[in-house]
Amino acid sequence: MKAADIREKFLKFFESKGHTIVRSSSLVPGNDPTLLFTNSGMVQFKDVFLGTESRPYSRATTSQRSVRAGGKHNDLENVGYTARHHTFFEMLGNFSFGDYFKRDAIHYCWELLTKVYGLPPEKLTVTVYQEDDEAFAIWENEIGVPKERIIRIGDNKGARYASDNFWTMGDTGPCGPCSEVFYDHGPEVWGGPPGSPEEDGDRFIEIWNLVFMQFNRDAQGNMTKLPKQSVDTGMGLERLAAVLQHVHSNYEIDLFQALIKAASRETGTPDLTNNSLKVIADHIRACSFLIVDGVIPGNEGRGYVLRRIVRRAIRHGYKLGRKGAFFHKLVADLVEEMGAAYPELKEAQTRVTNVLKQEEERFFETIEHGMAMLETALAELDAKGSKQLDGELAFKLHDTFGFPLDLTADVCRERGITVDETAFDEAMARQREQARSAGKFKSAQGLEYAGEKTTFHGYENEFFDDAKIVAIYVDGASVKEAQAGQQAVVVLDHTPFYAESGGQAGDQGVLANAAVRFAVADTLKVQSDVVGHHGSVEQGTLKVGDVVKAEIDTTRRLRTARNHSATHLMHRALREVLGGHVQQKGSLVDPDKTRFDFAHNAPMTDEQIRRVEEIVNAEVLANAPGIVRVMPYDEAVKGGAMALFGEKY
User: Fold this and answer.
1) By CB neighbour count within 10 A (0-12 exposed, 13-18 middle, 19+ buried), where does 445 fall?
2) End-to-end CA, the chain
3) What is the pLDDT of residues 80-98, one digit of tens each?
4) C-alpha pair distances (Å), 107 with each of 92, 142, 372, 444
């Protein structure tokens, strides 16, 4: 049974049981800054389980594409060294949102595995949470699994609700016991059943995990029953395919064999068991689907994880003797294998191929020099009998040749060498500090302020009559007053002045009363919620405690606001013309211009530039009224606001 057939049978089986087939969500989680990537099937239903979102169905089934290659969930370093670790995998799952619970979930599981997929019942062993008598009884009395093949798994440290078989969404929130299904490869394979000293062996392989969400845990660890008990299950397609195709390693299944043969073709490596081919076959899936979902290789966040995976694949090709771009040529083979299940992959084939080709060509310019330096260092270590690579050299490889630390560590591991990561981190910290010191951006940091935060009124008013001076700084030192002719930074309790942030320049204007006038040349944040008015005393003596009228330069502010609006119009137009992967990477907005930085895999053509201009100009000419509204985050997103990962509102 091919992987594609296994996927289809799973979805169709649960559809026949009243489940709605839901398309895989993006690898980039929507509105969830707690996750770098979608790493399981339940991610897109998280708000449903939490009760903050409702769906038109109470039963769902998915084949969710998932990535574990960064952040808390990171399998990257294990790929190529184990039989079942991947950066990208598909998670088959069925979900109940307050509908059926343990009994139906267990019966569905057994029927699918033994009747639809035809697995011998005697080959299956199950686990339950140590205190879950209900699940134990269902498996024994209703399914007929012998009690010796139903294993209670708990925590030996005495913590009642901390166990491999007790699932939690986080420190607080929905949680509940699990029941896992293991396939027994037989006594000829070393290993013991779950819970035994030999459980890490390869004889018993977990293929499905059923999570029964029945409790809510509060901050004190107290458990209360959920008003709606739910089910969340996950079964790795690749693991199940290995069992059904009677192979031991995931890399031996039909889907991977096709990609391994493609990697063999492009690298000229006839030995299909070569681990480097497995790495390349795994990585083309992760890289391609990340690009499909809008991730572009870069130096931070998701883009950096993608770059690391691409460069790891290139290095393994280089190790096999491939000295030129090859990785992008595997996209067509991947589309052949997975394009039918994921039409978005087929639609993005050209863009994915071009992005990977450009990233390859960029890295191949430096890999030869970097590898030569690393090989020389490893040879010297071998001569000395040393087993650790200098962290400073690892940092030089990273900084000069674009070798991520894990790539250097991967090469070293093949020689039995470790990397001094402490020295690497110290070198990285030094570079960051030097970069900060050399920065040309204006900053009000360094001023010691311990007062109340500034209340901002700039969205409602262009002036504030009764602003009280709460702090004055001259030459960085806190003072009680500033004389005419002195440069100073003034902090008010209330202000209409916008402090430079989000790419928008700070306001200019005047602070004045009958006795004093202070010209504000710039506005910057002293702290995240404290505004500093930078300027000079033009007349009189400015004193802490004075009450002044704070008035911004309205003409300048309106010009800046128009340019800021243009930034958002351009962002929208760029996404429409170039694709949804376009995201703002930086901007500068002042009264004279707007500058917009974004990531795209190719230079814009003249036609694309003209099209963006036409879209933006059409919106400008439409002259829609600008309305400021403050609303809850979720309401804003539902109303169409774009909330990019990592942004705070």
Assistant:
1) exposed
2) 49
3) 778 888 999 999 999 999 9
4) 17, 8, 58, 64
Q: Label the pairing between strands 20-21 and 59-67.
A: parallel
| Helix 554-578 vs helix 606-622: crossing angle, to nearest 10 | 130
Sign, Cα dihedral of 303, 306, 308, 314: negative
CA distances 231 to 46, 100, 197, 358, Å, are 12, 8, 30, 44
Q: Tell me the β-bridge partners of 537.
A: 518
**Dist CA 11 CA 231 (whole Å):** 16
**At a CB cut-off of 8 Å and minimum separation 6, what does 464 contact?**
457, 494, 495, 496, 549, 550, 551
Instruction: Choose among 331, 357, 359: nearest CA to 345.
Output: 331
Give the separation between CA 404 and CA 342, rounded to whole angstroms. 31
CA dist list (Å): 205 to 121, 128, 250, 273: 15, 16, 12, 22
Joined together, the tokens standing for residue 131 give 């205190």
Closest CA to 7 of 23, 29, 18: 23
C-alpha distances (whole Å) from 271 to each of 264, 265, 274, 410, 415 are: 8, 11, 6, 21, 21
Whose tokens are 């929905």? That residue is: 174
Query: What is d(CA 345, CA 50) in angstroms, rounded to the nearest whole number?
Result: 31
- Pick the closest to residue 239 from 300, 166, 181, 305 (CA basis): 181
Q: How many whole angstroms separate alpha carbon 95 and alpha carbon 195?
A: 27
Residue 200 to residues 80, 124, 241, Cα–Cα distance (Å) = 18, 17, 20
Pairing of strands 481-482, 542-543: antiparallel
DSSP-derived letter for residue 251 is G
What predicted TM-score, i.e. pTM, was given to this entire model?
Answer: 0.71
Written as one string, the DSSP assignment of 173-198 is: EEEEEEEEEEEE--TTS----TTSTT
Give me the half-sphere count of Cα atoms (radius 13 Å) on the Cβ side of residue 309. 35
177 forms bridges with which residues in the sheet?
A: 166
Residue with tokens 């003596």: 541
Per residue in 21-55, pLDDT tens? 999 999 998 767 778 899 889 889 988 887 778 89
Tell me the per-residue pLDDT of 294-347, one tens digit each, with 9 for 90 and over.
898 988 889 989 999 999 999 999 999 998 899 999 999 999 999 999 999 999
Closest residue by Cα to residue 367 from 417, 408, 309, 423 = 408
